[in-house]
Specification:
It is built from 6 helices and 3 strands; from the N terminus they run αααααβββα. It has helices spanning 2-5, 11-14, 25-41, 49-56, 64-80, 158-170; strands spanning 93-106, 109-124, 141-150. The protein has a 3-stranded antiparallel beta sheet, with helices on both faces.
Length: 171
């Protein structure tokens, strides 16, 4: 019901304006309100965590492109709904982890932005040795933990970057 009640920023407020135009006080206040509502939705829909984090980086001074992107996230949430659904998993069980790291050069920040995403899932171990899929056959799982955050230490290799990010997450 909460996600269904979310409202996008009116397109008449952002249509036809340049992407890099800074929001005025009224639009900034509306952007903050909608962004806060979307951040609350992360509790039940982890799929938008990385996008919400990205939008929060510019919450102090959003531009028209940030308003448009926020509207995209709200529309996705309304279409996809809440991600929480629990059912009993068949035994034996296994724990799976999926991680990814990314780097983006930013003109205003000479060091750039490095992010890590990590999901830890509990799945049924019903695929067998002939099918080495990390998930269960039907893809059902329980989300035990997820992280989307900035990486403090950078490395040359992807493997080392993910190890550093996992070390940061465990601190």
């Amino acid at each position: 019901a909460y996600i269904a009640s979310l409202r996008v920023i009116l397109s008449s407020m952002i249509r036809g304006r340049p992407e890099d135009e800074v929001c005025g006080p009224e639009l900034h206040s509306l952007h903050q309100s909608v962004l806060g509502a979307v951040a609350w939705c992360i509790l039940s829909s982890a799929t938008v965590a990385v996008f919400t984090q990205g939008l929060q980086r510019y919450a102090h001074r959003p531009t028209m492109i940030h308003c448009r992107r926020l509207n995209l996230v709200v529309r996705y949430l309304k279409r996809a709904g809440s991600g929480l659904m629990y059912k009993k998993l068949a035994h034996p069980l296994k724990i799976c982890g999926f991680s990814d790291a990314a780097f983006k050069c930013q003109p205003e920040n000479s060091s750039g932005l490095a992010l890590i995403g990590l999901s830890v899932l509990l799945c049924a171990d019903d695929c067998g040795k002939e099918d080495p899929r990390p998930m269960s056959k039907d893809g059902s799982c329980h989300v035990l933990e997820y992280v989307s955050r900035r990486i403090r230490r950078l490395s040359r290799s992807t493997f080392a970057a993910e190890i550093n990010a996992l070390a940061d997450a465990l601190e």
